[in-house]
Amino acid sequence: MKVPYFTEGEIKLLQNYVYAYYDPDDYEEKKGKCLPFYIGKGKDNRAFDHLYVCLKERGKIGNFPQDDIVGKKSRSDDAKESDKKKKINNILDKDKMPVIEILARGFEENEALDIEMAMIDLLQGFLTNIKKGENCADNGRITLPELKLRANATPLTDEDILELKGKTLMLNIGMVLKKFENENPVPPTYNDIYEMTRRAWKLDTRRLKKITKVFAVSGGVVKEVFDVAFKEWENDTEEVNRKAFSKITPNKPNPENDKYKGRDVKNYCLRRWTVRYI
After folding, report:
1. CA end-to-end distance (rounded Å), the chain
2. Is 222 helix (H, G, I), strand (E, B) or coil?
3. Which residues is 243 bridged to in the sheet?
4. How far is CA 203 from CA 235, 243, 277, 278, in A?
5. Where are the beta strands (DSSP E) in 130-228?
6. pLDDT tens sequence across 18-69
7. Which pLDDT tens digit goes with each residue over 115-148?
8. Domain spans of the chain, in order of start
9. Among the four residues 41, 84, 178, 251, which has the most C-beta atoms within 10 Å?
């Protein structure tokens, strides 16, 4: 089987790019006017890595062609079972290859990430992508009511910061919240946001000793606040080297935290962030 790869000249022309995988039967039947089943951003031969992994597992290839650094770093994820991998294998079962197209090219990495984010957001529900686009919670697709909420959010005051400093942890739940909103017709409840916020965080145990409040943040706005004592933190049972807080926390909101909900905390967040301490 002839395995595709880009030449040095093609790689130079592409720079950072956004690519798509299509079902070959769908592509042929609709003459290319069809939706892809996967969109990604890459450099060098990244566009072929998903295909390479499936072919290698079938014994169709030995070493990866053009074994570049980008590919080496990303193939551990491609080796995991996923809807994308199942789709590619279904195509290979028919002795066919997925159609791969370059959707945008010649960009700096941050530009390519933004394009990838917009395309994934636009086609949500049609793709096998597990992850949303980079920073989509802060800069991606948004409803008009949510836009209004973020635009009118008031920043924390100096008095607020003085009260919160050293004992407040902010966790970015933007991507998981967006996934929930895409899959559910009703807004998330307090308990829904609690479960989104509760686990799978890489945290410094020493700093947690002073933390008493956890802010669940999306789009630079505080969505919910939880009172969490140090004794409630434990090792995550599902992910290694991650922390979670237990269900000791009451399953009802504390009215005293209402003054922080809906507040703008963008000044305390980096462009791409996961965890921040106040």
Report:
1. 56
2. strand
3. 201, 235
4. 10, 6, 10, 14
5. 168-172, 213-218, 221-227
6. 999 999 999 999 999 999 999 999 999 999 999 988 988 888 775 555 544 3
7. 999 999 899 889 999 877 777 767 888 888 878 8
8. 8-134, 144-277
9. 41
